[in-house]
C-alpha cells in the first residue's frame, strides 16, 4: 500500500519534470561574470531546464543541510539519553546480581 501511494506521487512528479524539460530545452547563457554583460569571461550556454532543475536541487540540498544543523541539539540529547539509559541498565543488572535469589521473595512480599 505504501509503495502504491509513493508511486501515486512520484509518477506525476516525474512526468511533470520530463514535460518541463522537453518544453524548455532552448539554450540560455549562464554567466558568472557580474561586470561584463557583453563579453563575459566565464559563461556557458545551457538548456533552461538544466538551470531550473539545478537550482531546485541546490535549494533542496541547502534546505536539508539547514534542517540537519537545526536538529543537532535533538540528536545530542538523544545520544545523552541513550548513554544514561545504558548506564542505568548496567547499574540495575549489577544490583540484581548483588541480591541473592533467596532474598528476592522477602524483598518483594513487603510491597502492597
What can be said about the biggest beta sheet?
A: 2 strands, antiparallel
User: Biggest sheet, strands in spatial order?
Assistant: 1-2
Give the CA-CA distance, first to last residue. 49 Å
| H/E element order | HEEHHH
Secondary structure tally, helices: 4
Poorly predicted runs are none
Q: Strand portion, in percent?
A: 5-15%
Outline:
elongated
Rg over CA atoms, rounded to whole Å, is 30 Å
What is the average per-residue confidence, as pLDDT, rounded to a whole number? Answer: 88
Helix share bin = 55-70%
Total strand count, please? 2
Quick overview:
With 112 residues, the protein is mainly alpha-helical.
What features would you describe in this structure?
This protein has helices at 2-23, 48-70, 72-98, 104-109; strands at 27-31, 43-47. With 112 residues, it is mainly alpha-helical. Strands 1-2 form a two-stranded antiparallel sheet. The longest helix is centred in the last third of the chain and has 27 residues, at 72-98. The protein is elongated, with a radius of gyration of 30 Å. The model has no long low-confidence stretch (mean pLDDT 88).
List keywords for this structure.
112 residues, mainly alpha, 2 strands, elongated
